[in-house]
Design goal:
This protein has about 280 residues and is mainly beta. It has a single domain (about 5-275), classed as Porin, CATH 2.40.160. It has four helices and 15 strands. A twelve-stranded antiparallel beta barrel has the order 1-3-4-7-8-9-10-11-12-13-14-15. The two termini are about 20 Å apart.
């Protein structure tokens, strides 16, 4: 129910005649354009949080398969609306995903709603160093139904770094997931993601990610989980190069467990994005 109004809002905000008539929208778009012009134009990876600032409405779909062949679909993938409300700042609002399980004994239902606030400290576009240094604070609210989310809210401070080398870039984040309450039962975790990404033939962004989680306390105390995630993104600017920032992007990849411990064997990730 929440997705349709947001998509319409994005489309209207990106439509040039309306921008000319609306001073607030025009100023917002000019600020976003100026902010993004000072950083590289890399594609946001499939799993790793984008190190730069972006305005996008994004919906992901993931299918995780456990060792016993039980599958879990996440519809919406905890993604949503990303905005640039001020220079160097991004705010993300992510509606709860819907989790659908193949096991008849596990109830389907909504997951947790989440938010993210990002600040970009340093950046240079492709002509001025090709790099980004930022930090972000993510948080989630325990909105899940039928045990499809956490029992408590969490906060997750992170640092993010990115560096480009011509047609190739590396993006990496390091952070912690910290429950607000009941830490002994839920445990804490350190999360490290790194992505190597190439830009080929204008539209194509092949990538390889490594997504690692180190558990401290809780049911997985002392264990490490790592996935390798090869994938491909295809991005196309609507109306050509002179149309501004309006673009569509889609892609897919597969998470493959590379550690001895893993909560699922592999997972398919599909992403759809409207950049504005």
């Amino acid at each position: 129910m929440q997705r349709t109004p947001l998509v319409l809002l994005v489309a209207l905000a990106a439509y040039p005649p309306l921008m000319a008539q609306n001073g607030f929208t025009t100023r917002w778009e000019q600020r976003a354009t100026q902010t993004q012009s000072k950083q590289p134009g890399w594609a946001p990876p499939l799993v790793t949080t984008y190190v730069g600032l972006i305005q996008v409405y994004r919906t992901d779909f993931t299918r995780q398969t456990a060792s016993n062949q039980v599958t879990t679909w996440s519809l919406d993938g905890s993604k949503g609306l990303n905005l640039i409300p001020a220079a160097r700042t991004e705010l993300d609002i992510n509606p709860p995903p819907y989790l659908k399980h193949s096991a008849p004994t596990v109830a389907n239902g909504a997951g947790d709603m989440s938010f993210l606030l990002k600040y970009r400290f340093l950046a240079g576009n492709e002509m001025k160093g090709d790099y980004v240094v930022s930090a972000f604070l993510a948080s989630s609210i325990a909105t899940g139904s039928h045990k499809n989310g956490s029992s408590d809210a969490t906060v997750s401070p992170n640092v993010a770094l990115g560096k480009g080398f011509g047609w190739f870039d590396v993006q990496s984040t390091l952070g912690a997931n910290l429950p607000v309450h009941d830490t002994r039962a839920l445990g804490r975790s350190i999360v490290w993601n790194i992505t190597g990404q190439a830009h080929l033939a204008k539209f194509y962004w092949p990538q390889l990610e490594f997504n690692s989680t180190y558990f401290k306390g809780g049911p997985n105390d002392g264990k490490t989980q790592t996935f390798a995630t090869p994938g491909l993104l295809i991005s196309h600017r609507l109306g050509g190069e002179r149309s501004g920032r309006l673009a569509v992007c889609g892609g897919a990849g597969e998470q493959i467990a590379t550690s001895n411990f893993h909560s699922y064997n592999h997972g398919v990730v599909v992403t759809t994005r409207l950049l504005f």
